[in-house]
TrEMBL record:
GO biological process, one term: arginyl-tRNA aminoacylation
Pfam families in UniProt: DALR_1, tRNA-synt_1d
Protein purpose: Catalyzes the attachment of arginine to tRNA(Arg) in a two-step reaction: arginine is first activated by ATP to form Arg-AMP and then transferred to the acceptor end of tRNA(Arg).
Organism this protein belongs to: Ficedula albicollis (Collared flycatcher)
Domain DALR anticodon binding: 464-560
Keyword Zinc: no
GO CC field: mitochondrial membrane
Subcellular compartments: Mitochondrion membrane
Gene name of the encoded protein: RARS2
Alphabetically ordered keywords of this record: Acetylation, Aminoacyl-tRNA synthetase, ATP-binding, Ligase, Membrane, Mitochondrion, Nucleotide-binding, Protein biosynthesis, Transit peptide
Protein name in UniProt: Probable arginine--tRNA ligase, mitochondrial
Length: 579
């Protein structure tokens, strides 16, 4: 890793002066973010972080003075050409030719794995992660919360895979419960076998809406209850109807997720844990954790003082299980099946309490691995409407973004040069949707706007895709020179240096996102990369420059695309995780 070799070299000099092992210093040396005010230093060491690592009596001393003193004790060498002190930092400038050469060679060599092989990850053990996301409820709305869960979960899974971890993607479908009682009855009156086959999600939703209205009638309600009871009793015919609803729905989900580039290893929903939930209740009882209330419901006491001031209800008075009971069963079953190191649930923040209770009960049951479960929550999105109205199906959102994007493309006449405008509109539109969602902290709520998301300028997914496509065509048009034939000394203009400096930071950014699972670090990195590329594109033209200069410009384009095999607009962004 390019940044790594520089960090190592700086750390080894520092280690002699500070008498600390270089490994302890590496994480305190970070690449300086590129700012509008051009800077010359490439790396900086934060004095506070080394003082913390060393003796405590240094703490009282003035940081600026410390930085100055330390800078004076360091010497320039073949890697570092300048050392200076800033407020609380020591700044290092890398030899300019070496910077260009090392970064470009590394990008060329690692391709799409650039940044991933950094030693920042060397102390992170390879893990097996179960990631549960999307998890819509059959026959109900696929709301914006499910869309967010889908793209955030997919981001986390992609990031983990890119960093070498093993990932199991699970869709915990809402495929059990009274809604199937209603659907079973509703289908007899309002169902159509043809419609069920051709568009199961939409048809089941329509039947569900209709039967819900009809169920104001007590007789219908009773019929639905009977149907669901038969389902719980495993009546064969009833089960086969349920299975058909479920199977056809999953088939359609798979098709739609594919448009988003999302897939699952398992569709194991709530139905699967219906019976296992009864075993969980038995276990809770055996462990003395299940308490009966006067109403006959079963609760687990989660209060510190054990005075029932905080409880979680795990059993209805008729002995049947609840949402949380099935989640308990699912967690235990997944541990038995996958022996995971970490399990992540992705839902909106309204379920935070639920997951907190879930992890607490698992802990009380003696499962220490409950500490390795994590709920990644996100905020609410307001105002996402399609032209037809409220969002009900994921497909509505995908079609809407595609048609709006296509319209924008037609009005700016960009469709002419594009081979498959509809496909392009879909890919670019999806990028716009994802980037709008990933720009802020996941926990923030935000107001959705199609116009803002689909702008071609500014910090949008459209701008990212546009930059990517532009660089890709530059690469296609100007050949594929080997980097060894390139005279890197040419690459010394301030705009080129800014790009190289930015590339130095990529592993740190990946590391940050991998730690807090927030996509915004990678997204803002890519947006800055695109801005820098746009500037460089103007000031360092490939076309019309002398061949040796042009080659370097072209290699720079390769850099931005993630190496020699950088994709086209159809393949998404340069980053392995965000697509
Ligand atoms: N189906 C649920 C819903 O739509 C989300 C499931 C979340 N995952 C879980 N293990 N409880 O609200």
């Amino acid at each position: 890793m390019a940044a790594g070799s520089f960090r190592r070299s700086i750390a080894s000099q520092l280690s002699k002066v500070l008498d600390l092992p270089p490994e302890n210093l590496i994480k305190s040396i970070s690449a300086v973010p590129v700012s509008k005010k051009r800077h010359v230093a490439d790396f900086q060491l934060s004095i506070a972080s080394v003082i913390e690592n060393s003796s405590s009596d240094c703490l009282a001393q003035d940081l600026q003075l410390q930085a100055q003193q330390l800078a004076e004790r360091l010497k320039c060498d073949s890697v570092v050409s300048e050392i200076s002190a800033g407020p609380g930092t020591v700044n290092f400038t890398i030899n300019r030719e070496l910077l260009a050469k090392t970064v470009l060679q590394q990008v060329w060599k690692d391709g799409s794995e650039y940044g991933v092989k950094s030693e920042l990850f060397s102390t992170v053990p390879r893990q097996k992660a179960v990631i549960e996301f999307s998890s819509p409820n059959i026959a109900k709305k696929f709301h914006i919360g499910h869309l967010r869960s889908t793209i955030v979960g997919n981001f986390i899974a992609n990031l983990k895979v890119a960093l070498g971890h093993e990932v199991v993607r699970i869709n915990y479908l809402g495929d059990w419960g009274m809604q199937f009682g209603l659907l079973g009855v509703g289908f007899q009156s309002f169902g159509s076998k043809e419609k069920l086959k051709s568009s199961p999600l939409q048809h089941l939703f329509e039947v569900y809406v209709q039967i819900n209205k009809a169920a104001e009638d007590e007789n219908i309600k009773k019929l639905a209850k009977d149907f669901f009871r038969k389902l719980e009793d495993h009546d064969e015919q009833t089960l086969s109807i349920w299975k058909q609803f479920r199977d056809l729905s999953i088939e359609e989900y798979i098709r739609i997720y594919k448009r988003l580039g999302v897939h699952f290893d398992e569709y194991s929903g709530e139905s699967f844990y219906q019976e296992k939930a009864q075993e969980v209740l038995k276990m809770l009882e055996d462990k003395g954790l299940l308490q009966k209330t006067i109403k006959g419901t079963g609760v687990v006491d989660l209060s510190e003082k054990k005075d029932l001031s905080t409880v979680s209800t795990v059993m209805r008075s008729d002995g049947t299980s609840l949402y949380i009971t099935r989640d308990l069963a699912a967690a235990i079953d997944r541990m038995n099946k996958h022996s995971w190191d970490t399990m992540i649930y992705v839902t909106d923040k309204s379920q935070s309490n639920h997951f907190q209770h879930l992890f607490q009960i698992l802990k009380l049951m003696g499962y220490d691995w409950a500490e390795r479960c994590q709920h990644v929550s996100f905020g609410l999105v307001q105002g996402m409407k399609t032209r037809r109205g409220e969002v009900i199906f994921l497909e509505d959102v995908l079609n809407e973004v595609r048609s709006r994007m296509l319209q924008n493309m037609t009005s700016t006449k960009t469709t002419k040069e594009i081979q498959d405008p509809v496909e392009t509109a879909e890919k670019v539109g999806l990028a716009a949707l994802i980037i709008q969602d990933f720009r802020g902290l996941l926990s923030s709520d935000y107001q959705f706007s199609w116009d803002r998301a689909l702008q071609s300028r500014g910090d949008t997914g459209v701008f990212l895709q546009y930059t990517h496509a532009r660089l890709h065509s530059l690469e296609q048009m100007h050949g594929n020179a080997e980097l060894t034939d390139v005279n890197v000394a040419c690459l010394q203009e301030p705009d080129a240096i800014s790009l190289l400096q930015h590339l130095l930071r990529y592993d740190e950014v990946l590391y940050r996102s991998s730690q807090d699972l927030q996509p915004k670090h990678i997204v803002s990195y890519l947006l800055t990369l695109s801005h820098l590329a746009a500037v460089a594109h103007k000031t360092l033209p490939v076309k019309g420059s002398a061949p040796d200069v042009a080659q370097v410009g072209h290699s720079g384009a390769g850099v931005l695309e993630g190496g020699p095999e950088g994709g086209s607009i159809h393949q998404g962004f340069a980053s392995p995780a965000v697509s």
